[in-house]
Predict the structure of Anthraniloyl-CoA monooxygenase.
Amino acid sequence: MKIAVVGGGPGGLYFAALMKQLDPSHDVTVWERDAADVTFGFGVVFSDETLGGIENADPEFADAMSRRFARWTDIDIHHRGESHTVGGQGFAAMSRKDLLGLLQRRCRDLGVVVHFSTPAPAAEVLSASHDLVVGADGVNSLVRQSFADVFRSTVDPRRNKYMWLGTDLVFEAFQFFIKDTPWGTMQVHGYPYSDSGSTFIVEMHEDVWRRAGFDTAQEFAPGVSDERAVDRIRELFAEELAGHQVFANNSKWLSFTTVRNERWHHGNVVLVGDAAHTAHFSIGSGTKLAMEDSLALAACLHEHRDVETALTAYETERRPVVESTQRAAQASLEWFENIGMYADQEPTRFCFNLLTRSRRITYDNLRTRDPEFADRVDTAFAASQGLQATAPAMFQPFRLGQLELKNRVIVSAMDMYSAVDGVPGDFHLVHLGSKAMGGAGLVMTEMVCVSPEGRITPGCTGLWTDEQRDSWARIVAFAHERSTARIGLQLGHSGRKGSTRLMWEGMDEPLPEGNWDVIGPSPLPYGPGSPVPAEAGREDLDRITAEFAAAAERGAQAGFDLLELHCAHGYLLSSFLSPVANQRTDDYGGSLANRLRFPLEVFDAVRAVWPAERPMIVRISATDWVDGGNTEHDAVQIARAFVAHGADAIDVSTGQVTADERPAYGRSYQTPFADRIRHEVTGAAVIAVGAIASYDDVNSILLAGRADLCAIGRTHLYDPHWTLHAAAEQDYRAEWPVQYRAGSRKPPSARTDAVRPRLSLLRADPPDRTVHLRWTPHREHSLLA
């Protein structure tokens, strides 16, 4: 096979070496525009999993790498005069220059032709003359640009500025220096890569960077560093450097750019590493991802002789892994962009927040690695709540207004579409009753509609009649008599999303018959095929407000402990809030203040009739997930407005406002929006919801201060007694219904060890050049992620 590799960085060279090793008959040529001795950056970090793959694929090269590793197991976090150490990790790093030297030598020994200081021929030319073209030419890939219409890239430049530097200070562990300055928060990511040097990355928000005077425009020739900025950094971080030097290597201020591609291959052209995808340096090394790509690509080409089949297999195998990494990287980089929000957190909580920022690392991970640190986190959390650290965070009680909740777990509102004429029946009694007996502190109804026209589907429940009220009263009474859970009422109006089929018959699809007229802020349908709503006039607004108030009165009579006003998911009140659905030109449209007007009028009318001693909360969509829609910045203002009108909590969901949305799904993907509101809005509790599926996630969210309570939806459909089972899993004695107490302890046969054993990749007799720093037996999964 005749192979062209564009880019002589670690990803390109490693792939070339692997292909030659697998089959010496391959004709492999690498083009690198820089000289052989030119490299940028300092150290690169590898995980144990990556090293294991390298060792299996090429033991000789892996052995050469291992002789140059610096290894350490701790993370040190320095914040506001305190230093916290978290142990039990496993890291390996080496000089990027050494790595490139080893790869160049390996390629030369195997017979790979490498052209240094030579731009590659055009990708189209290479594609015509070679069996395979590998684009390993980095974030600004010319190969990718040559087929831009096929790869369909998105390039997202981020808001932080960073500079990659080195120092002769050899750190004994990974270092996070969080520095308060007169201009804002700056941070350093530092780690050793040899017995003589460490990487020293300085990062800050662009606003801080400007205030600190780093934004003076200057032009630098290729390979020339911003020495003025480097000198300033030496001064700012003199204490952290402790008299040691800082070195530059083409070091300039950069903005990290997140690159994604809809496709990674086209014909016989394929992308690897930063050409295909980027992941923020705060969760590890782009070099690591590039070399993993190369290993997977070489393996697929070896297994499948047909190039197209091999490239498809490569993308199928690697894409889920990379996208998962990118989700974690996105969460991490956004955390550092917003680090100023957390500056006032209690130091132990701040450290825990930093370590769990990507949502890959959780409380249980940390407890496994460093039980003493986990104990400090528990104690700090309990002290902040005025409680004793005798229960997991999720089982600590919480006071919502004047309502006492036994724990911080909520069964989220979930539409069941099983009512007849709006009347909840036996299904709802069993459904909500089982959830109330399942251990959660608060159980929410589905969206209960305020009028027949306000239903989503014919199967939706309501509170526009006394019959409906009395049926709800039966359910509430069961919850109160048979459990210690509280039960909350969610009130809403479907708006332009009404008159649709039952979910399992076609979600958001119009009814085939028996339709009713729908209404909205503007005559704009929700999506293709949706009915055009009538634009609500003054009489409509007054009528609907009165319907909400009447339903709230019936809810109070039914005995509900709490009321939630549904202002999310594109229903009527949500659609007034969103510029995507609300394009009015009167006092109820245009500015955010105007778009808030009707939802606040409804809130005030409901609050006026809802008993003062019972809390009232609001669910909002914190982002519309579409250009031109509401963003997290609007959500902060929306939350503030409702809190100013008396909301006791903000339940933070996202999206479902338009069929054109493009959500960034992932683990706990909505929690960052709750986190922002909790840190920027005072006077109310914050509820996180969305893809929170484990008790470990709940504890991690609460301990980090990202929310006060967690609402769990689909997980409670899978297991109505999920909260009680979570207590048993954590050896916490929650209060079980007396009838179920015989099953309150997990059977010994069902228990599993918290940590699965593995063989360490460290050698018993480390080669001479390996640097061990605070060495202890380590575990999987880098805390950088």
About this structure: The chain has a mean pLDDT of 91. Residues 307-337 form the longest helix (31 residues). The chain has 26 helices and 30 strands. The domain at 403-743 is CATH 3.20.20.70 (TIM Barrel).
